[in-house]
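WARN retry 2 of 3 for item q-0093 after timeout on previous attempt; input resubmitted unchanged.
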Amino acid sequence: MKPSILITAGDPYGIGPEITVRALRDPAVRRACSPAVIGDTAALRRAGWTAALCPLFPEDVRGRLPRRPGPSAAGGEASLHAVTGAWALMKSRAFAALVTAPVCKESWALAGAPAPAHTDLFRLLGGREPLMLFSRGSVNAALVTEHLPVKDLARRLTGPLLKTKARLFAGALEALGLKRPTITLCALNPHAGDGGVIGSEELRTLAPAARALRRGGMDITLPVPSDAAWARHLAGESDGILCLYHDQALVPLKVAPGDAPAVHWTWGLPFPRTSPAHGTAFDIAGRNKADASGMAGAIIFAAKLAARGARS
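OK item q-0093 returned
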C-alpha cells in the first residue's frame, strides 16, 4: 500500500502551485505515494490541477490580490493557513508525511504570522526543537542554527543546543538506514579558531559538547574547519556533516558535483516533513518555467521515509 502524502501548495503567487501540479503528474511520484494537496483553489486550477489529479483541501486567498507576483499579505495568509491546516491534518494521523512548497517570509510577516518560516512555525506548534537538514545523493547536511543573523551566532551557539541537534541528526541518519552514523562537526571560526587565537567558541563550547557526545557513544568529530569538513564529507568519510549556520551548509551543498536536486527535510516532528530546497521564485511565477524536479524529489523522499515508518 502506497503511503499517503499531504502537500501544501505554498505561496499562491509564487511557483508553488505550478511545481506541485507538475510534480503530481510525474509517474515516479504517482508510483511512490497517494497524494493530496492543501492550498488556494484558483492558483492550483491555473496551474492545471483538477479533481482527477488528487484530492484538494482548499485554503483560499482572502483580501486584495497583488497585480503581479511578489510578496503580499494575501499570499502570506493563504500559505500560512495551508500550513496550519496541514499541521492539524498531520496531527490527526490522516497522512503519513508532509511536503511543503515554498512560502515567502516577507508575505508571512505582512500577514502577521507568529513565526517567520516553516521550521520556526513547527517549533512553535510542536513545542519541541526540530532539526533542519538537507540531503542530495550521499550528501547529508544539518544545521545547528537556521535563519539567524551572523552577528548573533556566537551568542546562540550553546553546548546544549549543539548536543540536541547532533542527537536529532544521528536519529535522522538512522532513519535513512545508516547504522551508527558518522558525523563531521564544522567549526565556527577560520582554522577552527587556531587554539583560541581567532576565536574561542571551539574551545569553550563546540569541543566540550562533541566530547560529551562521544562519551555517550556518538561517532562525531571534534570541530573541523569548514573547508576541511566539507572535503571529508564529499569524499565519503562521514555519513553527515553538522553545520553551525545556514550558508555553511547551503553554499557547498548547492555547488557540489551531481545532478540530483537537494531535498530539505525536518526531523524531530511527529511526522516526516520535506520540501524542495529553493524559494518562491516570484520572478518566473506563472510563466511555466519553473523546474519541478526538486518538488518531485521532495515528495519521493517523503514517501520513502513514510514507507520506512520513520518517526523522530
